[in-house]
Amino acid sequence: MVRALQHFRAVNASIDVARLMGVAPHAALLVITRIGYSADRRAIELTDTYCRDDYYDFVAELH
Fold first, then answer.
1. d(CA 30, CA 51)
2. Virtual CA dihedral for 55, 10, 25, 22, nearest 10 degrees?
3. CA dist 61 to 15, 24, 39, 58, Å?
4. Environment class of residue 32 by beta-carbon count within 10 Å: exposed (0-12), middle (13-18) or buried (19+)?
5. pLDDT above 90 (res 54)
6. How far apart are CA 40 and CA 53, in angstroms?
7. Residue 56 has pLDDT above 80, yes or no
8. At 16, phi and psi to the nearest 5?
9. How far is the C-alpha of 23 from the C-alpha of 50, rounded, in Å?
10. What is the pLDDT of residues 10-52, one digit of tens each?
11. Nearest to 30 by CA among 18, 47, 16, 13
12. Given this model, what pLDDT does residue 22 score?
């Protein structure tokens, strides 16, 4: 992977996601979607990371 795009958004937890994360249904969550690209510009990675509102620390180092 030589490049990635990340999209941050606030969502309310669905019933299924809330159960898996141990939060109340419709609790506020931060979702980070990342798409990673190869040198030939093909998308090779897709991740969705769900963050509880009481349990995350976001750090970014840019070069």
1. 5
2. -20
3. 34, 32, 21, 10
4. middle
5. no
6. 37
7. no
8. -65, -45
9. 12
10. 999 999 999 999 999 999 999 999 999 999 999 999 999 999 9
11. 13
12. 95
Domain boundaries, the chain: 3-52
Query: DSSP letters of the chain?
Result: --EEEEEEEEEEPPHHHHHHHT--TT-EEEEEEEEEE-TTS-EEEEEEEEEETTS--------
Give this prediction's pTM: 0.79
Length of the chain: 63
Matching residue, tokens 């990371």: 49
Q: For residues 30 and 10, is the Cβ–Cβ distance under 8 A?
A: yes
